[in-house]
Amino acid sequence: MTPSQAPAPGAAPDPPDAPWPVRATDVRQWAYCPRVVYYTTVVPVPRAVTFKMEYGTEAQAAVEALEVRRKLRRYRLDAGERHFRVRLESGRLGLSGEIDLLITTPEEAVPVEFKHTERPVGKNHRAQVAVYALLAEEHTGLPARRGFICRLPSGRLQQVACDADERRQALEIAAQVRAMITQESRPHPTGVRARCTDCEFRRYCADVE
Ligand code: SF4
Predict the structure, then answer these.
(1) pLDDT in tens, 137-181
(2) Which of 23, 116, 162, 209 is such that its CA lies 20 to 30 A from the CA of 138?
(3) Which of 32, 45, 199 maximizes ligand 1 atoms within 8 Å of its Cβ, making it the mutation to test the pocket?
(4) Is 99 helix (H, G, I), strand (E, B) or coil?
């Protein structure tokens, strides 16, 4: 367990079999390449701050300001409340995360993830949104059957389902992340070797072609 994910000193102990929370971002990274999670949690390696990371931090406030002026109809909603950067954690689910935007209506909760990319939405992003849906549902008591990926800077939206399959996959990935961090064992590389070409961790993966 990494220091950032271990229970806080002095905190009330969890029940013996309560799963400690796995972050939504780690679920996303695992679905992309399990080793990325290893390099960012078990053996954190030096990372360069990329333009994308800096841009992402600076752009967040601007995105939020723009978002409040946008119509909720683009989310297929007539009305609702926007909540930005919602941090949630569940001991029952063994999950945690910070939702960029959570829209609530009397009928549903809709998590929205901002992505600084125009690439197609992948399995990894779907798993992250499924984690947010599970957390939002527990926190609000409202059903969260769908979410959105908002691509930046275009603002293009893609709706993603948060159905039983997506939730099950997200929970399975979280269990794999938890097991890997607990055992401190380096996981297998991604099966999509094209991802290795521009990977910032490439020099630590001598076994990939
Ligand atoms: S180089 Fe490839 S296997 Fe290694 S962390 Fe990056 S994507 Fe994963």
Answers:
(1) 999 999 999 999 998 878 899 999 999 999 999 999 999 999 999
(2) 116
(3) 199
(4) strand
Residue 72: CB within 6 Å of ligand 1? Answer: no
Stated length of the chain: 209
72 C-alpha vs ligand 1 centroid, how far in Å? 38
User: What's the CATH class of domain 22-184?
Assistant: alpha beta
* Segment (H or E) for 57: helix 51-69
Pair of tokens at residue 175: 């269990």
Cα separation, 44 vs 20, in Å, equals 20
Using the mean position of ligand 1's atoms as its centre, give its distance from the Cα of residue 125 in Å: 18
Q: Could you give the CA distance from residue 169 to residue 75 in angstroms, rounded to a whole number?
A: 25
Residues 179-184, mean pLDDT to the nearest whole number: 96
Ligand 1 binding pocket mutation candidate from 29, 33, 186 (most atoms within 8 A of CB): 33
pTM of the model as a whole: 0.87
Q: Where along the chain do its domains lie?
A: 22-184
12 vs 58: CA distance, rounded Å: 36
Q: What is the pLDDT of residues 111-132, one digit of tens each?
A: 999 988 888 889 999 999 999 9
Task: Please state, in angstroms and as integers, the Cα–Cα distance from residue 72 to each residue in 60, 142, 154, 162, 208, following that order.
Answer: 19, 18, 17, 19, 45
